[in-house]
Amino acid sequence: MLNKELEISLEATIQEAKGRRHEYITIEHILYALLHDIKGIDIVANCGGDVSKLIMALNDFFIKNIPTIPGTKEQFPQPT
Fold this sequence. Notes:
Layout: H1 4-19, E1 24-25, H2 27-34, H3 38-46, H4 51-65, E2 78-79
Parallel strand pairs: 1-2
Helix pairs in contact: 1-2
């Protein structure tokens, strides 16, 4: 059984990939979801990371590197 916080983060990951119409869930989707969680933000910031820059870089990565599922039928992304 997963703890509740991890479960919430994984659900956010799935919703992010689904909202972008991505076929697969990648590690980048997980990082993106964690960058929208207060604990994830604190960890990155305390290690000297720039959360805003990471989010922008991930958005750019998604646009350039992850194909979207065509059509209008709702799809559920698969973990990789």
